[in-house]
Specification:
The chain is α/β, with parallel strands linked by helices. Helix content is 21%, strand content 27%. It has two domains: 247 residues, 3-Layer(aba) Sandwich (QueA-like); 77 residues, Thrombin, subunit H, CATH 2.40.10. It has eight helices and 17 strands. The strands form three sheets. It has a nine-stranded mixed beta sheet with strand order 2-1-17-16-14-3-12-13-15, with helices on one face. Strands 5-6-7-10-9-8 form a six-stranded antiparallel β-barrel. It has a two-stranded parallel ribbon with strand order 4-11. It is globular.
Length: 347
């Protein structure tokens, strides 16, 4: 495997036929396919097989964040349309956002959201804009007039069915603007089957930000500035992970957001402990994983930081081979797509 310094952005590119990008979810969550990539040769399975691939005593770590209705429609005084995607709330009336408009608004620009909420662009930080409401609060506004923010590659507006299917069945804490998509495959039947097999479960909270879809723009990946995401790691979860390690079980992260929470905490605190903070951890090949032993994940965009993360976890060449196999076998990609199961690479 190439050394970290040898990697450039083009090393994480691949050609994906557009028709393999899943635009809609399957009728049944657990009907997705599962690419078993734990060994050298890929094995084609279904997601319903997952409980049988795990061992009694293993621990599944879920991200229980809940997606906000974070997409808002607004107009400038000139009449120009603006699409607002709330990244996160800085206060009840102040939000960090991404904006789409024919011309990027300058600080001081006044806007009207959904024809009734007055607001002002009060600052800009690189690709993000700060939007200040004059009254009310963003949580109320998003509940009343917000739209579910489907990822840009779906190329469609959210439909009624997305309200349920773009949330995990265990979602609890509102704050994300994108779903932790590896968890979308779990339904109550699969969770029950895992419990009956003796597989333990615990949860973290990481509020996925819109920055997860931002492209890496520098060819030298070490120069990329990672976005920050807020997370909460409870003492109960820390105890569950320590107990799993003590009994010889594997910590199985459900999604890259669970990985970022656990590994980000260790990087910040020097150990795994109950903590609430923000992480901007950027995991690339060469990173030594401290907590996670296995990973359940969807397929990620070319040149994305998440593709770099899974390459670090399972091995760069192995991931390339798995993606080639998935494309040849017509797997469905991205948020509503299929899943893969990986184990930590041990050089």
């Amino acid at each position: 495997m190439p050394h970290i310094q040898a990697f450039t952005l083009s090393d994480f590119d691949y050609a994906l036929p557009p028709e393999l990008i899943a635009q809609f979810p399957l009728p049944v969550r657990s009907a997705s396919r599962l690419l078993d990539g734990r060994s050298g040769e890929p094995v084609d399975r279904t997601f319903a097989d997952l409980p049988s691939l795990l061992q009694p005593g293993d621990l599944l770590v879920f991200n229980n964040t809940k997606v906000l209705n974070a997409r808002l429609r607004a107009v400038k005084a000139s009449g120009g349309a603006i699409e607002i995607l709330v990244e996160r709330l800085l206060s009840p009336t102040l939000a960090l956002t991404q904006l789409r408009a024919s011309h990027a608004p300058k600080p001081g620009t006044r806007i009207l959201i959904a024809g009734k909420y007055h607001a002002e662009i009060v600052g800009r930080d690189d690709r993000f804009f700060q939007v200040q409401l004059e009254s009310d609060d963003f949580e109320t506004l998003m509940r009343e007039v917000g739209e579910l923010p489907l990822p840009p590659y779906m190329q469609r507006a959210a439909a009624e069915g997305d309200t349920e299917r773009y949330q995990t069945v265990y979602a609890q804490h509102e704050g994300a603007v994108a779903a932790p998509t590896a968890g979308l495959h779990f339904d109550e039947a699969t969770l029950t089957a895992c419990r009956e097999r003796g597989i333990a479960m615990t949860q973290v909270t990481l509020h996925v930000g819109a920055g997860t879809f931002l492209p890496v723009k520098t060819d030298n990946i070490a120069e990329h500035k990672m976005h920050r995401e807020r997370y909460v790691l409870s003492q109960q979860t820390v105890d569950a992970i320590k107990a799993c390690k003590a009994r010889g079980g594997r910590v199985v992260a459900v999604g890259t957001t669970s990985v970022r929470t656990l590994e980000g905490c260790v990087r910040e605190c020097g150990e795994l402990r109950a903590h609430e903070s923000e992480t901007d951890i950027f995991i690339t090949p060469g990173y030594e994983f401290k907590v996670v032993d296995a990973l359940l994940t969807n397929f990620h965009l070319p040149k994305s930081t998440l593709l770099m993360l899974v390459s670090a976890f399972a091995g760069y060449e192995h991931i390339r081979a798995l993606y080639t196999h998935a494309i040849e076998q017509r797997y469905r990609f991205f948020s509503y797509g299929d899943a893969m199961l990986l184990q930590k690479n041990t050089p």
